[in-house]
Design goal:
This protein has 15 helices and 16 strands. By secondary structure, the protein is of the alpha/beta class. The strands form two sheets. Strands 1, 2, 3, 4, 5, 14, 15 and 16 form an eight-stranded mixed sheet that branches. It has an eight-stranded parallel sheet with strand order 6-7-8-9-10-11-12-13. The chain folds into two domains: 2-73 and 370-410, Urease, subunit C, domain 1 (Roll), CATH 2.30.40; 75-362, Alpha-Beta Barrel (TIM Barrel). The structure holds N-(iminomethyl)-L-glutamic acid and fe (iii) ion. Fe (iii) ion is lined by residues 78, 80, 248, 322, 324. Belongs to the metallo-dependent hydrolases superfamily. HutI family. It catalyses: 4-imidazolone-5-propanoate + H2O = N-formimidoyl-L-glutamate. Its EC number is 3.5.2.7.
Length: 413
């Protein structure tokens, strides 16, 4: 099956030579082809170029994209979309003046979600999570990472990971899985953090490895949650089972988590709302991708990651949603891109690079998605009739997507 998209007003994020990611000044360049064609064969991008060179034969289906643009689908490298119920009650508590930290300290927050998840069957958890996955696919996400971390018992963590596995098997979207057992300390272990980490290391990790349930390991390295020492312990333990680190750091305080991530060759360090100069310095000339989560800053009214400072220092940056019930109940990458432009002063080119090729790198999928490159999956966004790609972040809150394709197939859910 070969599909030809013809008369594309502008084909965006065209990378003829494969690249892993873009950093610093290069983030402001977004290569495109105006008046383009794109050919898809068996779910993969097989050819593209100017309409002047458009093949006349050799395809079984033609889609006329006149007036519309095509981009690679968004790559959301940080989500927690598998969760039970919601935390709307805490949302109202925060409106009335309680802080996110105070709610967590009173047994709400992550522990609230963990209780709900422990009481929810695997089947119901799957049904709730699949609705969120279908929603984000319609919003243009074509690859995503999903974390555990709302189970906080061995059984409930495994339940989450099995749900992620089922989503991965049942949907054509590329999914990567992260074990985040060390997301918060369960009440039973309030005075015994070592005991909880030992449980994760001695009981959860071997089972995860045995069933092949995760590729990455994460920990919430934060004051009041897990220390740098705990972080190093978990990352070392994960490494023994081949799990690569992708960690939550510098959300509320800077305690050296970035440096621990770099030391352990983390694929990404995520959040970064609070960045000291030495944290930016530590990321230079490393293979660790900084990931900003602007929807989380928006929802919690906390600082935004200092994107300009990081990019001006020559670093790469990826953007992701952090879709979760507590700090970011939204999986909309279009909103993330708008917010990055509006609040973090990223240009549309930088934001689109951060949400495609750099996001793909941050979840180890840069050889499969994130750009218009021959051989990559044809995970595509076909826009409505718009005059420039900058209109996508500009028209915040408005859907500019007409159709989405995964592995070349139109997805209508
Ligand atoms: O990435 N910061 C840690 N974990 C999640 C939110 C946890 C929650 O409130 O449920 C995050 O923001
Ligand atoms: Fe998160």
């Amino acid at each position: 099956m070969t599909t030809l998209f013809k008369n594309i007003k502008e084909l965006i994020q065209v990378r003829t030579e494969p690249i892993s990611y873009v950093s610093g000044k290069a983030m402001s360049e977004l290569p495109t082809i105006k008046n383009a064609f794109l050919m898809v064969n068996n779910g993969l991008i097989s050819d593209f170029g100017s309409m002047n060179d458009c093949p006349k034969t050799g395809f079984s289906e033609v889609i006329d994209a006149t007036g519309r643009m095509i981009l690679p689908s968004w790559c959301d490298s940080h989500t927690h979309i598998v969760y039970a119920g919601n935390r709307e009650g805490e949302f109202v508590d925060r409106i009335k003046g309680l802080s996110y930290e105070a709610i967590a300290a009173n047994g709400g927050g992550i522990l609230n979600s963990a209780k709900k998840l422990q009481e929810t069957s695997e089947e119901v958890l799957y049904q709730q999570s699949k609705e969120r996955l279908e929603d984000v696919i319609q919003l243009g996400t074509g690859a995503l990472e999903i974390k555990s971390g709302y189970g906080l018992t061995v059984a409930a963590e495994l339940k989450m990971l099995r749900v992620i596995k089922r989503l991965k098997e049942n949907y054509p979207i590329a999914v990567k899985t992260t074990f985040l057992g060390a997301h918060a300390l369960p009440l039973e272990y309030k005075e015994n953090k070592e005991g909880y980490l030992k449980l994760l290391i001695d009981e959860a990790l071997p089972k995860i490895a045995e069933e092949n349930l995760a590729e990455y390991i994460d920990i919430f390295c934060e004051t009041g949650y897990f220390s740098v020492e705990d972080t190093e312990l978990m990352l070392e333990a994960g490494k023994k089972y081949g799990l690569i680190p992708k960690i939550h750091v510098n959300q509320f305080t800077a305690i050296g988590g970035v440096q621990a991530g770099v030391k352990h060759h983390a694929l990404s360090v995520d959040h970064l709302e609070v960045m000291r100069d030495e944290d930016i310095e530590a990321l230079k000339n490393t293979k660790t991708m900084p990931v900003a989560l602007p929807s989380c800053s928006y929802f919690l009214s906390i600082p935004y990651a200092p994107a300009r400072k990081m990019i001006n220092a020559g670093l790469p940056l990826a953007l992701a949603t952090d879709y979760n019930p507590g700090s970011t109940p939204s999986g909309n990458m279009n909103f993330v891109i708008s917010t990055a432009c509006i609040k973090m002063k990223m240009t549309p080119e930088e934001a689109i690079n951060a949400a495609t090729i750099n996001g793909a790198y941050a979840m180890g999928l840069d050889d499969k998605v994130g750009s218009i490159t021959k051989g990559k999956q044809a995970n595509l966004i076909l826009t409505k009739q718009i005059n420039s790609y900058g209109f996508i972040p500009y028209s915040f809150g408005t859907n500019q997507i007409e159709k989405v394709y995964l592995k070349g197939k139109e997805i209508c859910i």
